[in-house]
Amino acid sequence: MLIEAARANGADLIVIDTPPQADTIALTAAKVADIILVPIRPAIWDLQAAQPSLLLAQVANRPAFIVLNGVRPGSNVGNEAAAGLTGQGAQVAPVMLRQRVHYEYAVRDGRTVQEAYPNETAAEEVAQLYQWLCGHVDMPTSGQSREAA
Hints:
single chain, 149 residues, Rossmann fold, 3-stranded parallel sheet, 8 helices, disordered C terminus
């Protein structure tokens, strides 16, 4: 399997991005995951669409956290969504990724915000999420530059 090969070659972190459907591919990935992140926007239809992924995490017996993204800066909608999700028993990552133009600019160039805009707020948000994630999978963040995060 590719995961074993990556670990044998020194990979400390493996990110598997699956389609949003809770299908066989997603279940296979969930079973080998240390943690499952479910990125969603704080709109009601997106919040409802997260349920299959959360159920998949339960079936795989893995911890899952919703990562709110595309949250409008200066609004309370992210906090309201987090409170609603928590009230329904979901775990929500404490770091929200806000709606920022630098995400859009970076992806146009095929880069991350850390590569394209390392001194902008979007890069800092991703770095905070990375640090939080490392704490959950018992992976040190020392020695990691902001660009490598």
